[in-house]
Design a protein that fits this description.
alpha+beta
Length: 68
């Protein structure tokens, strides 16, 4: 069962010793993963170092044109 406890979604279950237990839903695979996480599968479209180079080039062009 999933419900909001302690201001977060938690999964409730009956433990092996017969006691009622709860876990944060993030610790389980019950909730569907976000689509972007699934599609990305740990891959990034752009490399951070190349994005920094692009930002530097944009800043340089903007400075040459007098815009910022």
């Amino acid at each position: 069962m999933v419900r909001k406890n302690w201001d977060e979604d938690r999964v409730s279950y009956l433990g092996a010793e017969g006691r009622f237990r709860t876990l944060p839903i993030e610790w389980t695979d019950i909730r569907e993963r976000e689509l972007i996480v699934t599609l990305g599968a740990g891959r990034a479209v752009f490399r951070a170092d190349l994005l920094r180079q692009l930002r530097a080039m944009i800043n340089e062009i903007a400075a040459r044109n007098g815009a910022q």
